[in-house]
Specification:
Layout (H helix, E strand, L loop, with lengths): L7 E5 L4 H12 L3 E6 L2 H10 L7 E5 L5 H15 L4 E4 L15 H29 L2 E6 L12 H21 L4 E8 L14 H9 L13 H8 L10 E4 L6
Parallel strand pairs: 1-2, 1-4, 2-3, 4-5, 5-6, 6-7
Helix pairs in contact: 1-7, 3-4, 4-5
The structure holds NADP nicotinamide-adenine-dinucleotide phosphate (NAP).
NADP nicotinamide-adenine-dinucleotide phosphate binds next to helix 1 and strand 2.
Length: 250
């Protein structure tokens, strides 16, 4: 049931970290996959890392905050692999760490553009395609910061809470037309984005202490949840919010 054979997926931010792991997991499960990131060198590095699957893989430089890039991403995936069955809105950013009262408007705009407006726009464009091709699955990568008011990550928290509600609203609107929309909330996974929380051994110890499993996570530990939501194994699940956080938000 977790086979993705015959399914065509887009994974935004698939050039490193969680997105790269999800792209690899999808390829191993049999899907065709289009990944994107802003920087061409990151796209090339990911293509090199996944070279074993090169016949079922496409890499595009695209910024999820730019409408024209989103159109380009969709067209490239369709032209190469056909109708899109799965979209993973994974690209994310967290440019500001500090109290809301000290923040600049630009930090708000940047965070919302990438973490919320990008998924909104891309989901809308892809869902329109899915409506005419018989349905599909959209998976949003939110965060446990979207469930709790994370200290010094207020703007990021607001953007990720918005993504959770976007998941629920679109799940309700699109369910009868065969489009499922679900959401994963990771918590402290070792990537570039979360470096401040684990690069220093003392910081990692603190992060680990907050988790029932007593450790932070690895990118591969997101694959199971993403494959589940992308595949027919989750055929009766929509609007769900799944924490993959080692037991932190309990
Ligand atoms: N790591 C964690 O502990 C954690 C916890 C909770 C939630 N998350 C969420 O998980 C998702 C993935 O994060 P990560 O930790 O894997 O981060 P990461 O290692 O920094 O990777 C981010 C990826 O997104 C791409 N990206 C960034 N901005 C983009 C944009 N505007 N347009 C297109 N692509 C963009 C990056 O490539 P370029 O730089 O080349 O654009 C890269 O491929 C994010 O949504 C993040 O909020 C992570």
């Amino acid at each position: 049931m977790t086979s993705l054979s015959g399914k065509n997926a887009i994974v935004t931010g698939g050039t490193r970290g969680i997105g790269l792991a999800i792209a690899r997991g999808f390829l191993e499960a049999g899907a065709t996959v289009t990944i994107c990131g802003r920087k061409p060198e990151n796209v090339q590095n990911a293509l090199d890392a996944l070279a074993d699957y090169k016949d079922r893989l496409l890499g595009i430089s695209a910024h999820v905050g730019k409408s024209e890039d989103l159109e380009k991403l969709i067209s490239a995936s369709e032209d190469r692999f056909g109708a899109i069955n799965v979209l993973v809105n994974n690209a994310g950013t967290n440019p500001y760490y500090g109290p809301i009262v000290d923040s600049e408007d630009a930090a708000w705009d940047k965070t919302m553009e990438v973490n919320l407006r990008g998924p909104y726009q891309l989901s809308k464009l892809v869902a329109r395609k899915m409506l005419s091709s018989g349905g599909g699955s959209i998976v949003n990568i939110s965060s446990i910061a979207g469930l709790t008011a994370s200290p010094l990550q207020g703007i990021y928290s607001v953007s990720k809470a918005g993504l959770i509600m976007l998941t629920k609203v679109m799940a309700r609107e699109l369910g009868r037309q065969g489009i499922r929309v679900n959401c994963i909330c990771p918590g402290v996974i070792k990537t570039k984005l979360s470096e401040a929380l684990w690069a220093d051994p003392q910081a990692e110890k603190q992060a680990a202490a907050m988790k029932a499993l007593g450790r932070v996570g690895t990118t591969d530990e997101l694959i199971g949840a993403a494959v589940y939501f992308a595949s027919d194994a989750s055929s009766f699940t929509t609007g769900a919010v799944l924490t993959v956080d080692g037991g932190m938000v309990l």
